[in-house]
Write a structure and sequence with these properties.
The structure holds 2 protein chains of 2 kinds. By secondary structure, chain A is mainly alpha-helical. Chain A has one domain. Chain A has 9 helices and no strands. Chain A is elongated and about 65 Å long. Chain B is α/β, with parallel strands linked by helices. Chain B has 2 domains: 219 residues, P-loop containing nucleotide triphosphate hydrolases (Rossmann fold, 3-Layer(aba) Sandwich); 80 residues, Alpha-Beta Plaits (2-Layer Sandwich). Chain B has 10 helices and 15 strands. In chain B, helix 3 crosses helix 4. The radius of gyration of chain B is 24 Å and the shape is elongated. Chain B starts with a strand and ends with a helix. The chains are: A mainly alpha, B alpha/beta. Chains A and B meet through helix 1 and helix 4 of A and helix 2 of B. Chain B: This is ABC-2 type transport system ATP-binding protein. Chain B: Keywords: ATP-binding, Nucleotide-binding, Transport. Chain B: GO terms for molecular function: ATP binding; ATP hydrolysis activity.
């Protein structure tokens, strides 16, 4: 299995994915800094009530970004193989088709999971240190807040990774890259949109159950892959 | 086990359309089997079924003596293939594509990659992405990929498509060499008889999804008979001379200018002399073989 993952990364230039993620980190960090400096000292209507608020907003941006990012990866790793018919090469190899698909999906799942964690960590640490210097809000940062947020982010990362598979089932229907990416955007808009500080994804059960649905639907769409006609 | 491929009533339906129906084919070890039939006859579909890319609706396939099941993959290690248009990871170079192929096939031999590229004479293009290749180059690379893992069985679907005459010649020789030196069994499809007849040991004629006949080239050569063809502006007079003056009964009109004489005991000189002396105008006179083309057209038409 590890070998298959390695081969997938060889095909699709792994460095490209890393650059993509780095750019995403920078964009999120930049956006957060703009929000922080432009709106941060608005005393009447503060954009953040405190650290928890700020960290949640980071998490929301991170997840929205990487769910869409995952749909791009799904397009490259799976949809395009079907569209370019290279799947008929892959499926004529002495390797189980399920393993090939599983290798591809695990790349998407773990990449999304790891990036949600890492981006939260990096951008969160950056903003916390900026606030330590600038000090728009002076509420003390407690270990309790951090631990609680860490658990929250972990759950959300699992949720995002599972949810990121949802667009696959939609994109696979007509082997279309646009419909894969558009459906991921729709998911993000529904789940991650922020209404007066509330987004439905902040109820942790919702992203987690969507993740389960994502995994289930994906399983269903590839259950009969061994008997599927290709090419 | 002398048969590498054996199918038993192999059938494939797409909806109501029967693309392949009741095919019983046998490909023996170490032979070049030419799969001959017009476009859309079902050649590619059969090859895809052999590779497991398409699941048969009915019937069975036996490869290397084992029955093929939907999840079988082990036999694929021994098969090289090129089906329809050659497909590659276009951003990768020729060499990278071949190395990747080796990794998936579980065949690790860097030298084999070089050797395969050399055999198809694709040299000096190692770092160029395949995207920039011409169709002919892709076709060569596809064949190189198929042979790069030293397979026991090669499935090549229209392998000379897009090749220049020089390339066609090269491939013909390569196919023979693979058979003779490596002991590879080849299944080669084509809609062009002239391509197949020069390399094949056995020809399977397929039309409308049915395998009409499987015949060895030796048999084909034996049954393509000889005749003398006369082109004349006066066939009536010619026929009269043939029967009454020369005593030939076995001939046939082809249109109003051509007569074919199947009685080959009489020499061409004697025949032309006899005709000219009796004032039959002769435009042309030739000794000919009943062409393979006609032989196979006969089979295809007879099978319909």
């Amino acid at each position: 299995m590890f070998h298959l993952i390695k081969l997938e990364l060889k095909k699709g230039s792994f460095t490209g994915y890393i650059w993509g993620s780095l750019i995403a980190y920078l964009t999120i960090a930049g956006l957060m800094m703009i929000v922080y400096f432009v709106e941060g000292n608005n005393i009447e209507e503060p954009v953040f009530q405190g650290y928890t608020d700020m960290l949640h907003m980071i998490d929301l941006l991170v997840r929205a970004t990487f769910i869409v990012y995952a749909s791009v990866m799904i397009s490259k790793l799976i949809i395009n193989e079907f569209k370019d018919k290279t799947i008929s090469l892959l499926f004529a190899y002495p390797v189980s088709r399920k393993k090939i698909i599983f290798a591809k999906l695990s790349i998407v799942f773990f990449w999304t999971f790891a990036n949600v964690l890492l981006a939260n960590l990096v951008v969160g640490a950056l903003l916390i240190s900026i606030n330590a210097g600038v000090g728009y809000f002076t509420e003390p940062l407690t270990i309790h807040t951090l631990v609680q947020h860490a658990i929250y982010v972990l759950m959300q990362a699992i949720g995002a990774a599972g949810m990121s598979l949802l667009p696959l089932a939609i994109g696979m229907r007509n082997k279309s890259v646009p419909s894969t990416i558009v459906s991921s955007i729709v998911i993000v808009v529904l789940v991650c949109s922020n209404n007066l500080g509330f987004s439905i994804s902040s109820i942790i059960a919702i992203p987690l159950s969507l993740a389960v649905i994502g995994i289930l639907i994906t399983y269903m769409s590839f259950r009969n892959i061994d008997r599927m006609d290709v090419g | 086990m002398t048969e590498i491929i054996r199918t038993n009533l192999l059938t494939k339906n797409y909806g109501a359309a029967e693309v392949v129906s009741g095919v019983n084919m046998k490909v023996r070890r170490g032979e070049i089997y030419g799969f001959l039939g017009p476009n859309g006859a079902g050649k590619s579909t059969i090859m895809k079924m052999l590779l497991g890319l398409v699941q048969p609706t009915g019937g069975e396939i036996e490869l290397f003596g084992d029955k093929l099941l939907p999840a079988s993959t082990e036999h694929l290690k021994r098969i090289g293939h090129l089906i329809e248009t050659p497909i590659f990871y276009e951003k990768l170079s020729a060499k990278q594509n071949l190395e990747l192929h080796g990794e998936y096939m579980g065949y690790y031999n860097k030298q084999a990659v070089e050797e395969a590229l050399e055999l198809v004479q694709l040299i000096g293009v190692h770092s160029k992405p395949v995207k920039q290749f011409s169709l002919g180059m892709k076709q060569r690379l596809g064949i190189a990929r198929a042979i790069s893992t030293r397979p026991d069985l090669l499935l090549l679907d229209e392998p000379i498509n897009g090749l220049d005459p020089e390339g066609i010649q090269l491939m013909r020789n390569l196919f023979r060499r693979l058979r003779d030196e490596w002991g590879v069994t080849l299944l080669i499809s084509s809609h062009l008889l002239s391509e197949i007849e020069q390399v094949a040991d056995t020809i399977g004629v397929i039309n409308g999804g049915r395998l009409i006949r499987e015949v060895s080239m030796d048999t084909v050569h034996a049954s393509t008979n000889e005749y003398i063809e006369i082109v004349t502006s006066n066939v009536t007079n010619a026929a009269y001379v043939l029967t009454d003056k020369l005593g030939i009964q076995n001939f046939k009109y082809l249109g109003d200018r051509i007569i074919r004489v199947y009685d080959t005991d009489i020499s061409q000189e004697k025949l032309s002399k006899g005709l000219v002396l009796n004032d039959v105008p002769i435009e042309a006179i030739n000794r000919r073989h009943h062409t393979l083309e006609e032989y196979f057209l006969g089979i295809i038409r007879g099978g319909e």
